Amino acid sequence: MPAMKRRQLLQAASAAIALPGLALAQSYPSRPIRYIVPVAAGGGNDMIARVVGERWGKLLGQPLVVDNQGGGGGVVACQATMRAAPDGYTLLQGYVATHGTTPATRRVPYDALKDFTPISMIGATPNVLAINASVPAKNVREFIDYVKRSPGKVNYGSAGPGSLTHMTMELFKQATGAFMLHIPYRGIAPAINDLLGGQTQAMFPGLAAALPHLRSGRMRALAVTGKKRSDQLKDVPTMEELGFKGFDAMQWYGSVGPAGLPADIVKHLNETQVAVLKTPDLAEKLSGEAVEPWPMTPDQFGQYIRSEVQRWTALAKARNIQLDE
């Protein structure tokens, strides 16, 4: 072998050894990636996964194959993910239930922090303090006064015990000292139907589910959660604006892998997903679920998950919400 060629090969080999992440990044992914979604096909969570996953897969050079695994409030999907090999070929679309409210209110067979590797936040949507149009309140202060003047007569609905709609209203009750009876439903649709029908008087639904009824006038929005006003409800103040500090609960979605995912794979996945989230048309695609892209670094997302688990665990303890019993 000519000396020049041998020297070039040695230099290339040395570079590969010195930069193992580069070599791995160039070879990963080499086959399709399983993208577990912890809900049945057809809902908003699933739609987000498919819209983001299609673009993400194109940028990665391999398809993300959506695997819907509903059941147990996300427990089934979380177990499948944490048991998978940490090689980047099994990922999970975690969200506020799997990595926030569920582990805060139930004993689950996974650790939301230790059993997963954060990759990136995808996006989030606010919840809306909504009331039946017949309730005589035009703003949050009037609603609080109305509830306190009507002890035992105001009910609020939720999508189920321990759901974000339940926990957000309990946060509201804690902050205001107002009492309302909780009426849990099996999902958001029947809860909204009874709010519209007057069987319940208030609720904290996600913005996407509430918008059609807010626009029809059958439901009235008093405030939204989050740190800034929603572009779709620009005249509705945030709870923070009204003096309820820390009232920034959001319905959020993000991607995680099993614990121990190599740093170079995490970096590659994060950078490609963030690039997808910054494409001009993605915000429009996600607007159907009122989700705003919210890219983060893996560290930022990990800190966000930690803060969510701490927030909802503290509330569950304060409000004596334990759903295993």
Task: Describe the structure in your own words.
The protein is α/β, with parallel strands linked by helices and 325 residues long. The chain folds into two domains: 33-125 and 251-318, Bordetella uptake gene, domain 1 (D-Maltodextrin-Binding Protein, domain 2); 128-224, 3-Layer(aba) Sandwich (D-Maltodextrin-Binding Protein, domain 2). The protein is built from twelve helices and eleven strands. It has helices spanning 3-18, 20-27, 44-60, 75-82, 97-105, 140-149, 164-176, 188-197, 207-216, 263-277, 282-286, 298-318; strands at residues 33-37, 64-68, 90-95, 116-126, 128-132, 155-158, 181-184, 202-203, 219-224, 250-258, 292-293. It has a six-stranded mixed beta sheet with strand order 2-1-3-10-4-11, with helices on both faces. The protein has a three-stranded antiparallel beta sheet with strand order 8-5-9. β6, α7 (164-176) and β7 form a beta-alpha-beta unit. α3 packs across α10. The radius of gyration is 23 Å and the shape is globular. The N and C termini lie far apart (74 Å). Residues 1-23 have low confidence and may be disordered.
